[in-house]
Design brief:
With about 150 residues, this protein is an alpha+beta fold. The protein has 3 helices and 4 strands, in the order ααβαβββ. It has a 4-stranded antiparallel β-sheet.
Length: about 150
């Protein structure tokens, strides 16, 4: 009886360890895919806006030196404009007629601010699994290389 209990405990412990390893691998893969998506979107938006200064002012007219989040209405417009001239390398299938969403079904956030020389710095962020901007699970270019 004692031996059966010990064997059962060992089996349960092994299964729990395997579960944790598989879960961590899945989360790391998903994190990598979403990071790739944010980098692709960021890379497509920045040069497109630089080529079309009127677009910059249209979308970012209220820009200051403080970081601001682009409203969803403008987000949808800018993603539509960018996808007309750029291929976004999004790892999950995406229909350009629908809002661009991350793996958790949330729109990516586009944060921006005006630099001293008049250009705009843009960062694309996934709000991560919790869907809340500004928490530890957010994914952006700042995670590249970490």
């Amino acid at each position: 009886m004692k031996n059966k209990s010990i064997v059962l405990l060992i089996v349960v412990a092994i299964l729990m360890i395997l579960f944790v390893i598989v879960r961590k691998c899945f989360i790391n893969r998903m994190f990598s895919e979403v990071l790739s998506d944010t980098l692709s979107i960021n890379a497509a938006i920045a040069p497109e806006l630089s080529k079309h200064n009127s677009n910059i002012e249209k979308f970012f007219s209220a820009a200051t030196s403080n970081w601001q989040v682009l409203p969803y209405e403008d987000y949808d417009k800018i993603i539509a404009e960018v996808t007309r001239s750029h291929s976004l390398y999004i790892s999950k299938g995406w229909n350009a007629s629908k809002p661009l969403l991350d793996r958790w079904g949330n729109r990516f956030e586009i944060k921006y601010h005006k630099l001293a020389d008049g250009r705009y710095d843009i960062i694309v962020i996934s709000k991560g699994p919790d869907g809340i901007l500004g928490t530890k699970d957010d994914i952006s270019r700042e995670d590249y290389g970490n």
